[in-house]
Design brief:
The protein is an alpha/beta fold. It has two domains: about 210 residues, Glycogen Phosphorylase B (Rossmann fold); about 170 residues, Rossmann fold. The strands form two sheets. It has a seven-stranded parallel sheet, with helices on both faces. Strands 10-9-8-11-12-13 form a six-stranded parallel sheet, sandwiched between helices. The longest helix has 17 residues. The chain starts with a strand and ends in a 9-residue tail after the last helix.
Length: about 400
Amino acid sequence: MTPLRIALVVQGRFHAFDLARALSDLGHDVTVFTNYPAWAVRRFGVGGSRIRSCWTHGAAVRGLERLPRGLRPQQADPWIHRTFGRWAAKALAGTAWDVVHCWSGVSEELLMSPAVTARCTLLMRGSAHIAIQDEILRQEEARAGVQLDRPSRWMIDRERREYLLADGIVVLSSFARDTFAQAGVPLDRVITLPLGVDVQAFQPASAEAATRAQRIRAGVPLRVLYVGTLSMRKGLLDLEAALDRLPDVPLDVRLVGTVMPEAVGVLSRLGSRVVHRDAVPQRELPAEYHAADVFVFPTLEDGFGLVLTQAKAAGLPVLCTTNCAGADLIRHGEDGWIVPVRSPGAIAGRLRWCHAEREPFALMAERAASVFRPRDWTTVGREFDVMVRRCLAAPTTRAHSA
């Protein structure tokens, strides 16, 4: 296999560091362009890659994000994305890249720059098509009666231009891919590359899986787990409504994640019916999954939902919506369930079944722990390699619709 010279351009981290590590392990010449400090990138085990850091940009972004929404400058969003994009375009210049794999929102400048030389440019879009994402959030904003963090008109227009400029658009799930089709983007320009998981960290020991099944059969209150940002986008209203339908079902509900301002009221109304723990370090997450019986993910829009792979690797039955990678990971009725978005009744019905049908549910939990074979990052790296070589062999496929 001929090594490729690959640039990964990402504002922040996302899954870029995991991908960089996997590609470096496969022998590729990888450089990561990020606003994380280089020492922080090394902390994530990206030892085989070069690192170019615009750490001053990262520090400025973190400062802006600490400001209340009303105090944030109106031009903060354009400044954040344009500044990083211009830096990346300059940093990439002067090197002949086989592939530039860049994250949406910060890539217009480098995709337009004549000084950036790449045989193939792939745009990573981690969520649904931005216009579809905005529509979903707009609907939820009206339903919840609170202002949500939606993409601005400026950002929507910018990303749509990026979609046109790249040779291909990489998404993470069939749901995300379908939203691009819905928005009129030709699907021969959209490539699906599901994420991986640190299998060794999350996979339970056989004793832990056996303890879970024994606990379910014992009839004690079921341990229901949610991990992720607590926000309206993640379906918190529907989780609240589902729990409202289950006053007679004893549940031990645990929510792990940062609370967004719009969700404070929901968490207050849930009160003692749930236990909340703020976001935890990655090393502490496996213990949260191993202590649970079922994982609930009522999201309204997720391009993938990395917590799904973590829950699956931990052997948990998963109850999630259609608007994430659930359809790609879960066999409905065998190791979990997929329900429509904004369907608290369906969520409540599944949880009631888990409580009432202990033996079938225990068998499902045992299957979830023994049958599922998680994707590791080595597999993702190999699939990325195949994807890139197909791109290099194909003619440019830029389209006229985004």
